[in-house]
Amino acid sequence: MTGVSQSAGVMKQAFANAFALFTGGGIIGVVQQVWGFLKDSKEDALASAKSAADLTATLQSTGHAAGLTADEIQRIGQERAKVTLFDDDETNRASAMLLTFTNIKKGGFEDAIPAIQDLATKMGGDGPADMKGATVQLGKSLNDPVKGITALTRVGVTFTDQQKEQIAAMVKAGNTAGAQKLILAEMNKEFGGSAEAARKAAGGMATLSMRWGEMKETVGDFVSEGLSKLSQWLGRVLDNAEPIVDIFVELGGEVVNLWHDVSDLVDGLGLFEEKGDSAVSVANFLKGAITLLVAPLRVCAAVMHGIIDGFITWYNKSEMLRGVLGGLGAMIVSVFTTVKDYALKILGGVGDILIGIFTLDKNKIAAGFKSSLAGTADLALESGQKAAKAFMDSYEANKNNHITRSVRVETTESTAGAGGVPTGGGEEPAGESEKANAAR
User: Fold this and answer.
1) Cα dihedral: 380, 384, 387, 393 (round 10)
2) 252 within a domain of the structure (yes/no)
3) 344, part of any domain
4) Considering its fold, how many domains does the chain have in total?
């Protein structure tokens, strides 16, 4: 029966389509992106904590020779992150490295950080290509100004003979800070403002990227703190779990003792011996209980049998009912199939939008919106057309379908004592009932 088979298969098709949407429509991809975001946030927060710890350790190992506190140095990084492409963690790492050059003191230290960022920006890819290289380069120059100006000359910083003599005289007189300021002034003349100019050239996306990084660190702090508290709590649970284990051990012993007591009682009363006849009593009790429990099920079965019998009679007599049911089944399958095909495109577009948001890719966001809108429009048009056609085709095809009843003959017992004669069940064509009656 084609119409009924199609209707019965609708639910199965719906579940299959739903699973296809879940596995192929980008939802899992989005979940993976969110999980990746949380994982990256945790790693960024740990890296930030590590740079802060390294800064504190360097201050202690150098005996606070620079004359600055950790908070003062970290504020430098926070302020520079607002106007350059270097985040506060990068600047903190450079500051920790600069602290190892103990001749650089408060006053010169604060001016040296922007100069390091300008040098790293200007010389990227040619010479010190990052903050670490620039920090070592300038740190050596400021720590020993007389020898340091020679190293700076190699990266393009030029000093006149008069400046070189002035630097040497300052160092000889014990005015190392003055010599450092002269070097930083020359650095600023040739490289000054490079880091801030790079930030301005990057535009609003650079600002968004920096803010995004800060937000990831904040989220990562929450994740790390939550995991830390959870692990501490689980540790406390395990530390205090021994009394719980003891309780279960004691309970097990009590259960064993109870089992022995019950066994002794049963053996003493002879409940499992044949003369006690307890098996017959238990069987009769179970028979009565099961009879009571099965009675409502028999009533329900009779009602369902009546409903199904009435529906089959109506279905076989009504041509319109057969056509409508077949058409509706085909229409629903058509709609689900069309939705599945286009949902992959629509949800794929939504996934592209979310991925674009997480990765700051505006082209992917635009492509995602375009794909989702186009898929929605196509779905609305094609699903209606296909559903209407499927209904009409299946309506005509199912008008002549009928449900064939099967005949079941129960086993009967002969009154002549010859024993029961079992007969098979199956479809019985019209005109065979007299033979069946004669056989019975």
Assistant:
1) -150
2) no
3) no
4) 1
